Recover the amino acids of this structure.
């Protein structure tokens, strides 16, 4: 079986070279599960009764960042969340409320300290440091209370959204946080518009609460155009998290140390065409998921659905059309849900005027595929309603 696995991997490698012109050293850790053909799904995955997901959409109008127009100095549309929500509201009307989960408050300092260092949180009190993280130099001249209230607080609420989406995914099979995905942030560092390590915090919180068991595996699929170096650094010592990362290798962050942590790396050249992008995804992701799920106990997937692979995006450097982005999202969500892996989606990057439409397309696909008007309306989980400031 090992030889079969190797042959299959060679085929993928060869196709990758042909189609995308790129190849990265074999990520053997995730292939180990293929050594034992007799292994069947065991543990919690085998025990779970497969049933279709009932989607949840996590969103707050307070996600949207605005500080006297300065946000327009960065190509990131920091109000894309609200714009996507407006499109969805026009499309689904009041029916959208059935799926809506509202993060009632930002994550607290005590919660952030579960993962972040006190020194890092202290640095975020300095507007000069925040300006560097956001890549918006004029922010350095704002009072600290303004950066906290207008920039960091919405991000802390979006971080709560990722925590909620992960928990809702485990309860209902599929949840989309209409923000989050700060994949360049790690416990002691932030850059690239990423302040809080929301995915790391969500996994840590679920482990602390016992929702994720000690041996339960987590799959992280990162299709943002930029490599998710913060997530890699956050999970550097956690072999229960399996990372698939498909990214433009010629742009930020070029973090060689973080790249070594990826279990299945799919680096792409600048200007990668849509056909090559989708061929790489179709060739690599199923093999990766098959090998990780073979031993069972995969209890959660987090899908970073960054839309900066869109052809008009100013930063991503990958040429995928709007239809191609939707096809990508459709493929990933089908691959995960067909394996009955509870999936939380986060938005991450997207730096074009069309980004919010791409997000709305993905959420509309989720609701039209898995939504059910007979489903009871979503509730705000009680645990998160206390201490609402
Ligand atoms: Zn990005």
């Amino acid at each position: 079986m090992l030889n079969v696995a190797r042959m299959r991997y060679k085929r993928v490698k060869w196709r990758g070279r042909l189609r995308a012109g790129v190849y990265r050293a074999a990520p053997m850790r995730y292939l180990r599960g293929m050594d034992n053909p007799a292994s069947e799904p065991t543990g919690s995955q085998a025990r779970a009764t497969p049933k279709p997901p009932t989607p949840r959409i996590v969103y707050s109008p307070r996600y949207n960042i605005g500080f006297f127009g300065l946000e327009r100095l960065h190509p990131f549309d920091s109000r894309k969340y609200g714009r996507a929500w407006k499109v969805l509201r026009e499309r689904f009307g009041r029916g959208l409320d059935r799926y809506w989960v509202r993060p009632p408050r930002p994550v607290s300092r005590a919660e952030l300290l579960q993962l972040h260092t006190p020194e890092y949180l202290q640095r975020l009190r300095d507007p000069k440091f925040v300006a560097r993280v956001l890549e918006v130099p004029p922010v350095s001249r704002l009072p600290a209370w303004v950066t906290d209230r207008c920039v960091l607080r919405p991000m802390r609420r979006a971080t709560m959204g990722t925590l909620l989406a992960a928990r809702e995914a485990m309860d209902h099979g599929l949840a989309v946080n209409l923000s989050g995905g700060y994949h360049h942030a790690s416990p002691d560092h932030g850059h690239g518009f990423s302040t809080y390590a929301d995915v790391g915090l969500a996994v840590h919180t679920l482990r602390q609460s016992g929702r994720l068991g000690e041996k339960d595996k987590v799959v992280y699929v990162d299709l943002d155009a930029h490599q998710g170096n913060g997530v890699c650094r956050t999970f550097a010592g956690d072999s229960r998290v399996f990372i698939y990362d498909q990214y433009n290798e010629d742009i930020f962050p070029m973090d060689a140390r973080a790249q070594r942590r990826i279990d299945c790396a799919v680096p792409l050249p600048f200007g990668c065409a849509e056909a090559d992008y989708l061929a790489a995804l179709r060739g690599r992701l199923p093999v990766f998921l098959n090998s990780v799920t073979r031993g069972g106990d995969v209890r959660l997937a987090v899908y970073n659905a960054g839309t900066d692979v869109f052809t008009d995006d100013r930063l991503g450097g990958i040429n995928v059309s709007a239809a191609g982005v939707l096809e990508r999202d459709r493929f990933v969500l089908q691959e995960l849900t067909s394996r009955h892996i509870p999936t939380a989606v986060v938005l991450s990057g997207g730096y074009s005027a069309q980004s919010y439409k791409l997000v709305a397309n993905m959420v509309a696909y989720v609701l039209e595929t898995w939504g059910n008007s007979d489903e009871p309306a979503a509730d705000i989980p009680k645990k998160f309603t206390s201490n609402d400031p």
Strands lie at 56-58, 100-101, 174-177, 217-222, 241-248, 264-268, 272-273, 298-304, 318-319, 343-346.
